[in-house]
Design goal:
Shape: globular
Order of helices and strands: HHEHHEEEEHEH
Number of helices: 6
CATH class of the largest domain: Mainly Alpha
Mean pLDDT: 93
Distance between the termini: 40 Å
Low-confidence stretches: none
Radius of gyration: 17 Å
Strand content: 15-25%
Helix content: 40-55%
CATH topology of the largest domain: Arc Repressor Mutant, subunit A
Bound molecules: zinc ion
CATH superfamily of the largest domain: Winged helix-like DNA-binding domain superfamily/Winged helix DNA-binding domain
Strand order of the largest sheet: 1-3-2
Structural class: alpha+beta
Largest sheet: 3 strands, antiparallel
Length: 135
């Protein structure tokens, strides 16, 4: 599905700014607000941070984008996909997706703790392939 269709499906107008934010995230995977600002400003130099932030928030509310919460790291954003964990390179800081069914983990944790768990944030500290090969 194209980004224009995704926005339309969620009854958001496909503005050039929103499409640019989606393009940045598509290309780079996980990006901080500052990163999104820098990359969108390459195309729209006059765009203000508050406008970018408002657009991101609207798309987060519609679940087109997700906030990626990683311990000890700033908040990252990504295009919403199936539940997954993150591999974080301790050398270069790169974040990669690791598809794992977090629902199963939540179910297990919930039944063994008798608590109500709403979501799981799972990340693994790793050294990525590139960093391993350039040792
Ligand atoms: Zn690395
Ligand atoms: Zn991810």
């Amino acid at each position: 599905m194209s980004h224009v269709d995704i926005l339309k499906l969620h009854s958001l107008k496909a503005t050039p700014q929103r499409l640019c934010v989606l393009g940045v995230l598509e290309q780079h995977g996980h990006v901080t607000l500052e990163g999104i600002e820098q990359l969108t400003k390459l195309k729209f130099p006059t765009l203000s941070l508050s406008t970018i932030y408002r657009n991101i928030n609207e798309m987060v509310k519609k679940e087109i984008l997700s906030e990626v919460k990683i311990a000890n790291k700033k908040e990252y954003y990504e295009i919403t996909k199936e539940n997954h964990a993150h591999l974080i390179c301790s050398k270069c800081g790169k974040i990669e997706d690791f598809i794992i069914n977090t629902d199963d983990i939540i179910k297990k944790a919930q039944s063994s703790t008798c608590s109500k768990i709403s979501s799981a944030t799972i990340s693994f500290d790793t050294v990525c392939k590139e960093c391993l090969s350039t040792k």
